[in-house]
Design goal:
Elements lengths: L13 H15 L4 E6 L9 E8 L7 E6 L14 H14 L7 E5 L9 E5 L18 H4 L2 H21 L16 H16 L7 H13 L8 E3 L8 E4 L2 E5 L6 E3 L1 H21 L11 H12 L6 H25 L16 H9 L5
Helix pairs in contact: 4-8, 5-9, 6-9, 6-10, 7-9, 9-10
Length: 364
């Protein structure tokens, strides 16, 4: 399948960043140099990542990854990039759980050195299921794996969620509580409504997204489970694997306190997003991988908690993803890469599956 050019995500000059990084590092670690600075091909659509090595007689880390808040000149995906919050989340997870979280070394809150706050962590070697082209397409290591190997990876990944949710004491994660009224789920959804309002300010609104919010109210759980620390972007594309075992859990910018099912719904739907896309382009994909029933059963076995109201939580995941996709599309409009269509809902890549969820026909 031919793909469109990757959407623009930054206005920053990589060479200038490398020079500024070297100057910052020398101030932190006298005599040190940042060498082999590069931007990974898999850099995301939100925050930016720089990879580099430290040249120094006794470096605290040899191979590093730097997580840099989004370029404020590049029509950011999110309104706020709280690097202190991300840094603190990773420290908390590393301290309270046995999850493989990369060691975080430095936090820089001053936007002066690189133009935005950032933190530096260890770079973990391994492989990540690709987003472009998606791992559900033929021609990548996960698609080429055996069913047994994928089942191992699936169970190990669900195990990450189970251990995260079970092992972090709520008191240690209170700094991730969202503001507002009501319980953790109500606050989470309220925050998403505010995010949507920010995305469409001065731009065409999405009737489909607004219908999805209305449908959530119809499906609202009668008794949401107590909140736990949610990873937020809980998907295999944010895990580094050694073979088929997780060795690093990445990307904590959407972490929050919420019911367990918020993470589970995101894991289920983000795979379905790629699987539906693959089928639409004439490939079989991986229909038996990361199935909703298997994720629910595995999680229940590991934690003793049976996931409930998953129609609500998978719809909520698809809705949240739609808001992000709409913002990404409006960024393309901003940079002149696309025009706003007559129906703004068509800017949402998965508008068909989201509409089916709203109508209650998706899981039939």
């Amino acid at each position: 399948m031919a793909t469109a050019p990757r959407p623009r995500t930054t206005t920053r000059d990589p060479e200038e960043l490398a020079h500024r990084l070297t100057a910052w590092l020398a101030a932190r670690l006298p005599g040190a140099q940042a060498v082999d600075v590069s931007v990974p091909a898999s850099n995301g659509l939100s925050s930016e990542t720089l990879l580099f090595d430290i040249e120094h007689p006794e470096p605290p880390l040899r191979s590093c990854a730097l997580r840099l808040a989004a370029d404020p000149s590049a029509y950011t995906v999110f309104p706020v990039y709280d690097m202190v919050r991300q840094y603190r989340t990773m420290l908390t997870v590393a301290r309270c759980t046995d999850l493989p979280v990369p060691k975080v070394q430095w936090l820089e809150e001053d936007p002066g050195p690189l133009g935005a706050p950032f933190f530096v962590m260890e770079r973990v070697e391994g492989r990540v299921p690709p987003d472009v082209m998606p791992y559900t397409y033929e021609g990548n290591w996960l698609h080429a794996a055996s069913d047994t190997e994928r089942e191992h990876l699936e169970a190990a990944t669900v195990g990450l969620l189970a251990r995260l949710h079970d092992q972090v004491p709520l008191a240690e994660a209170e700094f991730l509580a969202l503001p507002g009224e009501g319980d953790a789920l109500r606050r989470h959804v309220t925050a998403q409504r505010a995010y949507y309002d920010w995305v469409v300010a001065g731009l065409p609104r999405s009737p489909l997204i607004e219908q999805a919010f209305d449908r959530l109210e119809d499906l609202w759980p009668h008794d949401p489970c107590p909140p736990v620390l949610n990873w937020g972007d809980a998907r295999i594309g944010n895990v580094i694997y050694d073979g088929f075992d997780p060795v690093a859990v990445l990307d904590w910018e959407m972490a929050a306190l919420a019911p367990r099912e918020v993470d589970l719904g995101w894991t289920v739907y983000l795979h379905r997003f790629f699987q539906d896309l693959t089928v639409a382009f004439g490939q079989r994909g991986l229909p038996d991988f990361l199935r909703r029933d298997r994720i629910e059963a595995c999680y229940a076995e590991l934690t003793g908690h049976t996931p409930h109201d998953m129609d609500f939580f998978t719809l909520y995941a698809a809705l949240r993803h739609a808001i992000v996709m709409l913002r990404v599309a409006y960024r393309q409009v901003h940079f002149g890469e696309v025009a706003v269509p007559a129906d703004p809902d068509t800017l949402i890549l998965h508008h068909g599956s989201l509409r089916a969820m709203v109508q209650g026909s998706y899981w039939e």
